[in-house]
Design brief:
Layout (H helix, E strand, L loop, with lengths): L1 H18 L5 H14 L3 H21 L14 H16 L1 H5 L3 H22 L8 H39 L2
């Protein structure tokens, strides 16, 4: 049940970014705060996991694999919020993700991540300056790298938080 609820909430979050920038950014911020209230370790996940996507998507934007209509310095605010929300989602789903075979989850992340950009392109929130097929292949490869990094970072962060929790319980 938790998987279904969190997945539905993330889809509301994603559509808020894809259909409403900037009109739904307040909803995205409110949902991020809700995720933090639900599980405070989400803050750690945001800090550790989000830079992977921010750096990667900044490179995709600046090398013109992706294009958006809005003005931005590094990336549009809605895309930054989307990465914060995505990393919160995967963190809240970490038990399910980390319990599955690594390469299966990396492949699933590769296809799922790339398809979300294709959906964003279909909805008009971004565009592909290069051909659809070439951009699709690049995005699948980029998302394979993202997925590998994110899964490894989640494993590392989960270990760090557990070790910290154990050490805190031992202190008098």
């Amino acid at each position: 049940m938790r998987f279904v609820v969190i997945s539905l909430l993330f889809n509301v979050y994603w559509f808020s970014a894809a259909l409403g920038p900037p009109s739904f950014q307040w909803l995205m911020v409110a949902m991020l705060l809700g995720a933090i209230l639900y599980d405070r370790s989400v803050m750690w996940a945001m800090a550790v996991l989000t830079p992977v996507g921010l750096i990667g998507d900044s490179l995709l934007l600046h090398t013109q694999w992706l294009a958006v209509d809005t003005e931005y310095v590094v990336m549009p605010l809605w895309l930054l919020l989307l990465w914060l929300g995505f990393c919160s989602f995967v963190w809240l789903m970490r038990d399910l993700i980390l319990a599955r075979a690594f390469w299966f989850m990396a492949a699933l992340g590769s296809l799922g991540g790339a398809s979300s950009y294709w959906a964003g392109e279909r909805l008009g929130v971004l565009s592909f300056p290069q051909s659809l097929w070439v951009t699709g292949a690049v995005l699948i490869g980029v998302w394979l790298v993202y997925s590998i990094f994110l899964i490894n970072l989640m494993q590392w962060l989960q270990h760090q938080l557990r070790a910290r929790s154990i050490a805190t319980r031992r202190e008098p």
